[in-house]
Structures are given as structure tokens and as C-alpha cells.
Design a protein that fits this description.
CATH architecture of chain B: 3-Layer(aba) Sandwich
Oligomer: heterodimer
Number of strands of chain B: 10
Number of domains of chain B: 1
Radius of gyration of chain B: 19 Å
Distance between the termini of chain B: 37 Å
Strand content of chain B: 5-15%
CATH superfamily of chain B: Alkaline Phosphatase, subunit A
Order of helices and strands of chain B: HEHEHEHHEEHHHHHEHEHEEEH
Largest sheet of chain A: 8 strands, mixed
Largest interface: A-B, 56 and 48 residues
Number of strands of chain A: 10
CATH topology of chain B: Alkaline Phosphatase, subunit A
Structural class of chain B: alpha/beta
Helix content of chain B: 25-40%
Largest sheet of chain B: 10 strands, mixed
Order of helices and strands of chain A: HHHHHHHHEHEEHEEHHHHHEHHEEEEH
Shape of chain A: globular
């Protein structure tokens, strides 16, 4: 089937808001090339479970496409129209299974050496859309906080090397009450700007006590869901003929209720988000450091928060992958030193991902070695590439950086 | 966004500068006079080639860039000064480890399913080598730690194929056969995060045990005892390679390293550990080549990654973790060549293609890989 054949009733299996969005814009959708449309439908079909910022972005996109003059339309989609699809892809049920179509399209693009062409077309499209319908600036400058090294008594690892040149590096930070200071500061921002899904706290272990104004996501709280998922992955890997691509398809079809997340997380948007962290992120099911980094990436990419605190925790030691993927009752051995290295890189990625959002030039970022004396602060008022050996504390650093 | 060739050139220039500063290399100004025979004094029929794929993919930030050089001390201090280093090897194919390694081995960008147990569609370097030079099966070997590589030795091409390629050793299968998968050996049997779902079973253990006894001249107990001292699948592979070199001394030997690909699980420290281990193992193998009488003075060693990993800058990826975006960092790699007749301590900046490896090996060893898409690297022949 071609996009031009689309009819409103074909969206009957979509959730209600998604169905309406698709039906309202069916004339626009019909004009899109098949190499492009399922990528957009993959977003539309999830509309009911998207964060407000994502909904706004999607509405902005389809609204802009609907109003795009004919000449520009041709320019925007010319490259997509030159992508050759296979008959199998054309016959695929891309209306109801757009994510699976995109997976198969990706494999097809690699196999037929069209990946670079498609990648360029997608990049150009993204740039055009960003220029034509830019996202709004945040209500207040964003703040990212990364807390690394939980449970480490001492370490010679040279922390924050990648971040230091972008801000100030502090070597004599008083660790006293540091975690509470950071979480309280985040909570105060949530109170003063109570915007839905704008203030988050991700913990790679068990969460510290925090204000309910912060949305909490933690590796420990997701343990029951992780165990269910690991069981499914283990069974899948033991079945003959199953490969990683097939596994991704199986995981993409899961619902929160499959992991019993509907019982533990009341908000269906959040339940779906947390399920996706486990089903879409590689390694998030087995390593807490990977989970924290990926969760931060996804919170930033999708919710575009004003405040994000991420606290990394020790991950388990590396073991044979089949053991890692099995649910074990044995006592877990941790790798604190390796976890510190992971978290250091994770903190850097958190900053990079925050800088991809609007208002990057006004945003701030703080990384701290938990219960130790090292921290780095990045922000418009913080001099770059500087080192301070003077005694200070996190409250003061927040005051300078934010 | 800058185009791939532009960014690939930029990566290449950076590598050249990093190496110039750290290892004191010079930029090659021209070709060496004379052919490889004149320069090396080694006859074609006596030449041996060893290929190591530095896998599965490492980025400049963690290797050749100033901040990464601490992870590759052996490459930097021992191997690069003895090598011709190519700063820009571009892989234009599919960035999956099996299919990319198959492309390296055939000189054609293969399009087989990366996760299926399929042979390459085009003739492999092993088939060209054996058919053209009439060499026995024992003269071409592949050692591949990942279970998915069991079909890499010979193609499905109608003019070549079954029985005409390399013998393939999967050390994990050997170890499983010898130990029945005992608990003490599990750390050597692990595959990476993406691979436990792709472990085609090879029926029975007799074949593996026979390989151990008759070819590698190892008793099961000896093998088990030695395996207990090793820490990773790649260490196990190198141990097997050294046995092969001593007992069979094949002329064409291909080793696929894979420890680095633990990066898919997202733990940066494990990825770095993998790079450091691979660095050490490469130096160990070069040492073995120089100390084994069958190899010393007549072996060309190639070390190259199958491809890179995603850059931090590409928002479609997640940095070091994967190689899914197809960006320049994931496509642009490097290669070093060491051995008799190769000009040492020079950097070559021009762009090579991954498919140039097979025709270069053909020129060195004296066979004609007629169906390849790449070209011999003129600086090495």
C-alpha cells in the first residue's frame, strides 16, 4: 500500500488521541513518501503516551508540513523519494506496525547501501524543520546535576576530565550534606516552576529521600520489572533461530502490563516511559550505570526537563552474558571502581545531551564526586577551564553556576 | 552536516598529528623503490600474512587521540614505530561485525544478514590463496572468538566454496567441548551483549576435541589448565593462535578480536578494559611472529579494526556504545602493516577502502583475487 491510499479508518487501532491526530492530518500524511511516513507514524501512534514537550513538537511538525508550500514540499522530500524500497516493505503493515517497519527499513537501507543517502536526507529534514518551526525556549535555564562514585572510599581516577575545560573544577568541596543540598535545590525549582514532567531525579540504585515534586526513576524500583524482562530475554535467547533483531521486535511489542509496571506506576505515560528504558536501552537491564546514563539521555531527549538530577550507583561486576541475563538469587558482586569510570563518562554524556536542547547557552551543569571534594560546574557565569583550590560547598557552587 | 569524505579526512589528519607528536612518525612522501621482493628479500612462496581485526571497533578518543593513548601503550610505543600506518581506511559497507569482517575477507562489501549463520557470497581471501597457489587446507586458518563467525572461512560462490577455504577455529567451542562448559571457564565463553542470541550450535564435540588433539597437539587437561590462567575470550584466541603457529604454521592466518565489543552493554570501563587488552594481545602476537622460526623475517602483519564506533556528537547514537549511525567516526578506521620490506615509522594519509586489504594480500603472496572491488595498496607492494 502507498501513502496516497491512506484512509482515516485505517488508524482504528491507534489510541484515541493518536487516531485523531492522524485523521486530522490525513491529507498531509497521504503526500509523504513511504520511506519517510512510517517514521512519523511511529511517533504519532505513541502520541497518547508522550510527554507534553514531545506532543508539542509533533503537533508543530505535522502543522508545519500541512502548511508547507508545494515548492518547498518537493525540496524537503526529494531525497526521500529517491530511496528505493523493496516489495516486501511496500506490502508491510506500516500503518499499524510503524516501528517494526522502521526496523526493517533500516536493515534494507544498510543492505542496499542507501544508509548514507537516507541519513543525509533525515539530517537535512531535521535541520529544515528545526529552522522553520523551532522549539520554544525553556521557562527557566535548564540545570543538570550528575552525582558519581556512590560508595567509593577513595580513587585516583582523574574525574571530570572531559567536562573541566567547559567550566570550573573545584578540588576542595565540602561533602557535608551534599546530596541533600543538590536534591533540595532541584526540589525548590520544581516548586517554583511546577510544570508537568519538567523536574526529574534518576537514581542508578535505591533513591535517596526526595521531594515528591521531582519525578523519581530508579534502577532499584524497577527490579521486579527487570527480572520479568530478563526472564523473557533468556527464554528468547534459548529458542532456536532467534536473533537480536527478532528480540528487538519482540521487546518493541511489550506493554507496561507485560512487566507489571501498570501495577506500580500510576501514570500511564511514565509507566510506558520506564518500560521503554528497559526494552529499548542496550545494557539497561543488567548494568545500573548504563541504566542511569540511558535514562538521563531519554529524559533529556523526550521530556526536555528544566531540572535533571542523575545519581550513579555501583553496577554489578561483569559476568558471562548468559549469567547476566538470567535472574539470579545469588549475592551480587559490585565493581565500584569500574562504575566510577562508567559514571564519569555518563556525566559527560548527560552534559552533551543537555546541550542539544534549546537554551543551551543559558543552561548549567554540575557534576560531583559523592561524599568527596571534587566537583565541576558549567554555566554562562562560570569561567571555562578554571580550577579552584579554595574551600567551598555545593550550595555556593549552585549559587555561582545557576 | 559535513559529508563523509570531509569528516573522514579530518579524522585522518587528526590521527596523523597525534601520531607525529606522540610516536615521532613522519608523513610518507613517496613510494618505496623496487618491489617487495627487492626490499624484503623474501620470495613470494615463503611469505606469510597474519591479519588481526582490532575488534570490535574502537574510537580515536579512546585510542590515538592524546587522551586515549594511555589505553594503547603497546601500539604507540612498540608497534607503530615499526609500521606503515594508514590513517584513513573507510568502510562503506554494513557496520555489523560478522558482515564487515566478511567484507574485509572477500574484498567486496557483503550484504549477508549479520546475525544469520551464512557464508560470505563472494570468494574469500583464503579461497583465492589456496586455489591460485594450490595450497592445502592446513595453510589458511581463521581464529574467531565469536560463535557467529563459524562460516567465515569459505564462501557460497559457485567457483569456490566448500572445502576450498580456511579452516575455522572457534576457541569457545573448543573450550566448551573440553570442559563441558564448566563454571570455572564461563568468563572465557561469554559473547558480547548482542551475541548470546546468536550462537549457532555446531553438532557434537568430537570435531573440536579432534582439533585439539591432532592439530594443536594439546591434551584436554593441558588445554583446561592453561585456560584457567586466561581472563577473556580474546586471550583464549591468542593462546590458540600461538599453538597454531607452533604446530601448523599456516601461511595465511586471520584472527578476529572481539572483547572491545562489550561496549554494547554501555559500561565505558569495560570497553576501555577491552581496548587495553587488545593492545597488549596485538603486541604479544607481533612478538610471537618475531620469535617463531616459521614466521620470523617473512611475515607481514596487518592490524585494523573492522570499523569504528559512533561519535559523541551524533545525536542519533549514544557515543561509544554502538556503531549504528553510519557516521564518519563509525566508518573511518586505520590500519597498520608491519613486516619485511615495509617502510617503518611512516604515516600514509590517503584514503583507503576496507576492500583494499584482500588485493594487497594477493599482491604480497602472489595470487590474484579476481572478483574483489578494492585495489592493492601501492605503498605496501
Amino acid at each position: 500500500m502507498q501513502p496516497s491510499d491512506l484512509k482515516p479508518e485505517q488508524f482504528g487501532a491507534y489510541p484515541p488521541l493518536a487516531r485523531k491526530l492522524a485523521a486530522d492530518h490525513i491529507a498531509t500524511l497521504r503526500k509523504l513518501p513511504l520511506s519517510f511516513l512510517p517514521s512519523l507514524l511511529r511517533e504519532i501512534i505513541e502520541y497518547d503516551y508522550k510527554f507534553p514537550m514531545e506532543r508539542q513538537a509533533l503537533e508543530r511538525e505535522v502543522g508545519h508540513l500541512a502548511a508547507l508550500p508545494e515548492e518547498q514540499w518537493k525540496e524537503w522530500f526529494l531525497a526521500f523519494r529517491t530511496i528505493q524500497l523493496s516489495p516486501a516493505l511496500e506490502k508491510f503493515d506500516w500503518v499499524n506496525l510503524p516501528a517494526q517497519f522502521v526496523e526493517q527499513l533500516s536493515a534494507h537501507l544498510w543492505t542496499t547501501h542507501q544508509q548514507d543517502k537516507f541519513r543525509q536526507a533525515a539530517t537535512d529534514y531535521g535541520n529544515r524543520l528545526h529552522a522553520a518551526a523551532p522549539p520554544q525556549n525553556p521557562a527557566i535555564p535548564r540545570l543538570g546535576i550528575a552525582i558519581v562514585g556512590q560508595g567509593i572510599a577513595s580513587s585516583d581516577y582523574p574525574l571530570f576530565r572531559r567536562l573541566r575545560s567547559h567550566g570550573a573544577y573545584y578540588t576542595r568541596v565540602s561533602p557535608e550534606g551534599g546530596l541533600e543540598t543538590l536534591l533540595d535545590f532541584a526540589a525548590s525549582r520544581a516548586k517554583s516552576h511546577p510544570i508537568p514532567y519538567a523536574h526529574w531525579y534518576v537514581d542508578g540504585g535505591a533513591p535517596a529521600e526526595h521531594d515528591s515534586g521531582l519525578i523519581g526513576v530508579s534502577y532499584a524500583a524497577l527490579e521486579p520489572a527487570r527480572n520479568i524482562l530478563l526472564g523473557k530475554m533468556q527464554r528468547h535467547s534459548e529458542s532456536p533461530g532467534n536473533g537480536p533483531e527478532n528480540l528487538r521486535t519482540v521487546m518493541a511489542a511489550l506493554r507496561p502490563s507485560d512487566l507489571r509496571l501498570d501495577k506500580t506506576i500510576a501514570d500511564p505515560v511514565l509507566a510506558r516511559f520506564e518500560m521503554r528504558l528497559l526494552t529499548e536501552g542496550s545494557g539497561t537491564q543488567i548494568f545500573s550505570t548504563t541504566f542511569a546514563q540511558w535514562a538521563a539521555r531519554e529524559v533529556l531527549r523526550r521530556a526536555q526537563p528544566l531540572t535533571l538530577v542523575v545519581r550513579f550507583a555501583p553496577r554489578q561486576r561483569q559476568r558471562p552474558m548468559n549469567e547476566l541475563l538470567s535472574v539470579s538469587t545469588a549475592k551480587i558482586e559490585f565493581d565500584p571502581e569500574g562504575s566510577l569510570v562508567d559514571a564519569d563518562m555518563g556525566a559527560y554524556y548527560n552534559w552533551i545531551n543537555q546541550q542539544r536542547l534549546t537554551g543551551a547557552e543559558r543552561s548549567s551543569f554540575i557534576a560531583w564526586f559523592e561524599n568527596h571534594n571534587q566537583a565541576v560546574a558549567i554555566g554562562p557565569a562560570v569561567p571555562r577551564g578554571t580550577v579552584s583550590d579554595l574551600p567551598t560547598d555545593l550550595g555556593k557552587i549552585l549559587g555561582w553556576a545557576v | 552536516m559535513a559529508e563523509l569524505p570531509v569528516i573522514a579526512r579530518r579524522l585522518s589528519s587528526s590521527r596523523r598529528e597525534f601520531l607525529k607528536d606522540a610516536a615521532g612518525l613522519t608523513l610518507a612522501s613517496g613510494l618505496l623503490p623496487g618491489g617487495l621482493l627487492a626490499r624484503s628479500g623474501v620470495l613470494e612462496r615463503d611469505r606469510k600474512v597474519v591479519v588481526i581485526t582490532f575488534g570490535g571497533g574502537a574510537r580515536d578518543q579512546e585510542t590515538f587521540a592524546p587522551e586515549g593513548q594511555e589505553n594503547i601503550p603497546h601500539l604507540m610505543k612498540e608497534l607503530i614505530p615499526q609500521s606503515a600506518f594508514f590513517t584513513q581506511v573507510v568502510n562503506r559497507g554494513i557496520l555489523g561485525h560478522y558482515v564487515a569482517t566478511a567484507s574485509l575477507a572477500t574484498g567486496v562489501y557483503e550484504t549477508i544478514n549479520n546475525f544469520a549463520s551464512l557464508p560470505p557470497e563472494n570468494p574469500t581471501v583464503f579461497e583465492y590463496f589456496r586455489k591460485d597457489l594450490k595450497r592445502p587446507a592446513s595453510d589458511a586458518w581463521v581464529v574467531a572468538p565469536s560463535n557467529g563467525f563459524n562460516r567465515i572461512g569459505e564462501s557460497s560462490h559457485r567457483s569456490y566454496g566448500t572445502g576450498q577455504g580456511a579452516r575455522v577455529i572457534l576457541p569457545k567451542h573448543l573450550l566448551t567441548a573440553a570442559t563441558q562448559g564448566g563454571a570455572d571457564y564461563q568468563h572465557l565463553l561469554r559473547d558480547n551483549y548482542e551475541m548470546p542470541f546468536f550462537a549457532p550450535e555446531i553438532a557434537g564435540n568430537e570435531f573440536e576435541l579432534e582439533q585439539l588433539r591432532s592439530m594443536l597437539k594439546l591434551s584436554v587437561n593441558e588445554f583446561k589448565a592453561r585456560a584457567l590462567t586466561l581472563s577473556s575470550p580474546d586471550e583464549l584466541s591468542v593462546y590458540i593462535v600461538r599453538q597454531l603457529m607452533r604446530q601448523i604454521a599456516p601461511s595465511l592466518l586471520w584472527i578476529t578480536m572481539h572483547d572491545i565489543d562489550v561496549a554494547h552493554a554501555g559500561a565505558f570501563s569495560l570497553y576501555i578494559d577491552g581496548i587495553r587488552r587488545t593492545d597488549r594481545l596485538c603486541a604479544e602476537l607481533w612478538g610471537a611472529i618475531q620469535s617463531e622460526p616459521e614466521y620470523a623475517g617473512k611475515t607481514t602483519l596487518f592490524i585494523l579494526p573492522d570499523f569504528g564506533r559512533d561519535s559523541d556528537e551524533d545525536s542519533a547514537g549514544n557515543g561509544f556504545q554502538h556503531h549504528r549511525t553510519g557516521d564518519a567516526a563509525s566508518r573511518t578506521t586505520w590500519m597498520m602493516a608491519l613486516g619485511p620490506g615495509i617502510r617503518e615509522g611512516v604515516v600514509h594519509d590517503r584514503a583507503l577502502d576496507s576492500t583494499d586489504l584482500v588485493p594487497t594480500i594477493g599482491s604480497i603472496m602472489g595470487f590474484s583475487p579476481s572478483l574483489v572491488h578494492g585495489s592493492p595498496i601501492r605503498e605496501l607492494i
